[in-house]
Recover the amino acids of this structure.
């Protein structure tokens, strides 16, 4: 494949700087620790620094010495969710980059590893382009992470498997709850532009009457009348329904359903509308209650805990996040290349390879769910999605068990 | 102790009926399986039935044969959250009880075990009193469960420890998230009248700057101005704040903050206002945003997943739920008594005993947090609460680890 803009500079010597950007995941620290421990092995590395709060820590010269963290302690940090180096939503412009490079040069930082999503990969692209402009020998590598699973070039992203495991465990519970006290339970799941995480809820289905019977993702227009009819039909069939809805669902014109509700929409520096709070769920409940005679209709918005909850991790996701960090160091030290580490899956069930791809093919772009993963009706997933998602959950996914319910004959 | 209304009737022979009422917990099936397996050992037990959907399954004669479930399968069901026998919010009146007894007599059911909270214990009280009135030899035992931990006579209730573990793991994540991307994160926790579950969030604190720095429970009036000042002070001190708020917080007149928001308040058959949706959290965010210049202020409402999530269980809670079910059978078979199983803690750190107490001392009553568990300001818990709560979480509570952050000196 073409990796045109990558340059060889294996003679590079200097310091390593690692940082984390964007939202936390359960395994982002695996990538950080993977990169830090691996970087410590190379003789051309003078020291391994961590920048606090991502690129913001670079301009403010807030560096911690990762060379002096014990490996035992780093392993504990690796197993902790969220960004141990803290995070940022800053989006560098030319002036911001100039400030960064003054600091980077002063410390003789020659290797920069930035762990983040598509906004963060765009940050790496900008920083890398500034380095080229300034003629500064510098290797900048983006290490993927995102619970949304929406990075181009990647079969899947570190962080997704663990978040999916959380969502599946949550829906396993909602399924049990909705059957015990019959009704309709809606779970609002993260996913701004891509429905992967919401779709993963489907893997909570074990028994034929279980939900989520309905799944609504940003890749298909959300039509309230269809939604009401879908829920009505599923409730009539099963007597209990769970529904997985992406926070980022849009109408037929592509307008966010959530922004239709709120007068003022807060945005982050990357221009993304903030999708927070319980308003979308509450609105969907009201929509159903107005039309259906079902007593128990409720919505839970999973919120931040789905990306930061401690103790629910896909072991495969953790391994791959770790490997992505290590591989980034290999690409830098052995090949002297800048780029973005991408996870490939040569065999569906299941192995992975890591490749370095051009930053421009990932930066600021969004991957959406493949058409083959969504059903024709636009309210559920296909078997192909199950096959795609299942291996990412790792081992030991908790499983629900029902009584076999051998009925006692009624007496006269 | 006085257990006046309990009667001896050890010569009783007949069928056992087990049912579950109210909201699910992570370990309610441990109690069901504990009772079922233990009951199967007694010669005077003709068969062990389960009623589907609690007392509703009794009037409709919807019984399953628990004598014919394999013990292996029952163990798997025990480890599954929510009510395997399904649940109900029905509150029996005299006519409802009369219908129940027609069915109960027809099947020669002589032992009734009902697993539930204070509404369910009131159901057992009513059923038991009807049996006495009818002169039907019958043993009715309430087995405690509730994530709210608000049953009188109990040191703590099965279900609470696991829900507390979920809340602590959630707040451990929120703490990490709020520090990584600095701001104020509010978690709305279940707790209609009692603040135990919300207070348990405090055990997520590991580092001195970590939250929840603020905890608001129904036992203390919620004063918006004080809330704003508290958050402002905590944010100035730490730069990041997490706040635990009970869904059931009330103003100085005892009016639910949540009902002040919604025009029509839905109620369950027990007269409880339904506390659902994200409205309370969204309102608290708006309250803070109107007065404080903090950019990131968000609220997550944990919702139903905190009581039904699979895979987060306190092993101690599971053991005790199991024992409570077994002990209920012992009280019935060996002593022929009706009543409510209560968990005592003779030693703070830590052992438990089980006693049978009169149904009237538990039924329909609510236990609140002891004064000594809440701080003088009414916005946090004391060390005494930590000592109370810690043993209930069992083993293997996941722990967060931070980098030690050895700062690199800034260069000139």
């Amino acid at each position: 494949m073409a990796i045109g803009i990558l340059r060889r500079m294996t003679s590079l010597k200097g310091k390593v700087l690692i940082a984390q950007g964007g939202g936390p995941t359960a395994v982002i620290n695996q990538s950080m620790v993977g990169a830090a421990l691996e970087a410590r092995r190379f003789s051309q590395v003078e020291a391994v620094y961590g920048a606090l709060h991502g690129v913001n820590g670079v301009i403010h010269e807030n560096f911690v010495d990762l060379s002096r963290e014990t490996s035992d302690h780093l392993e504990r940090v690796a197993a902790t969710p969220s960004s141990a180096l803290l995070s940022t939503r800053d989006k560098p412009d030319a002036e911001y980059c100039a400030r960064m490079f003054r600091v980077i040069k002063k410390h003789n930082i020659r290797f920069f590893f930035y762990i983040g999503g598509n906004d963060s990969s765009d940050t790496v692209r900008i920083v890398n382009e500034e380095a080229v402009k300034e003629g500064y020998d510098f290797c900048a590598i983006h290490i993927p992470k995102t619970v949304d699973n929406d990075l181009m070039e990647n079969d899947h992203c570190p962080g997704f498997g663990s978040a999916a495991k959380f969502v599946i465990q949550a829906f396993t519970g909602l399924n049990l709850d909705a059957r015990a006290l019959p009704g309709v339970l809606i779970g609002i799941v993260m996913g701004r532009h891509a429905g992967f995480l919401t779709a993963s809820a489907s893997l909570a289905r074990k028994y034929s009457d279980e939900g989520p019977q309905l799944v609504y993702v940003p890749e298909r227009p959300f039509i309230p009348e269809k939604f009401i009819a879908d829920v009505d039909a599923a409730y009539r069939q099963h007597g209990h329904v769970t529904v997985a809805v992406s926070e980022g669902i849009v109408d037929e014109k592509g307008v966010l359903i959530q922004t239709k509700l709120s007068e003022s929409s807060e945005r982050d520096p990357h221009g993304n509308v903030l999708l927070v709070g319980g308003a979308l769920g509450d609105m969907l409940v009201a929509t159903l209650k107005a039309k259906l005679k079902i007593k128990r209709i409720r919505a839970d918005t999973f919120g931040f805990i789905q990306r930061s909850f401690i103790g629910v991790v896909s072991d495969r996701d953790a391994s791959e996040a770790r490997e992505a960090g290590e591989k980034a160091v290999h690409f830098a030290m052995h090949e002297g290349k800048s780029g973005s580490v991408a996870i490939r899956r040569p065999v569906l069930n299941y192995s992975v390879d890591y490749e370095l791809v051009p930053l421009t093919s990932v930066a600021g772009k969004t991957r959406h769910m493949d058409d083959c993963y969504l059903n024709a009706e636009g309210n559920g997933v296909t078997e192909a999605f199950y096959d795609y998602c299942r291996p990412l959950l790792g081992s030991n996914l908790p499983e629900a068990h029902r009584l076999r319910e051998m009925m006692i004959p009624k007496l006269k």
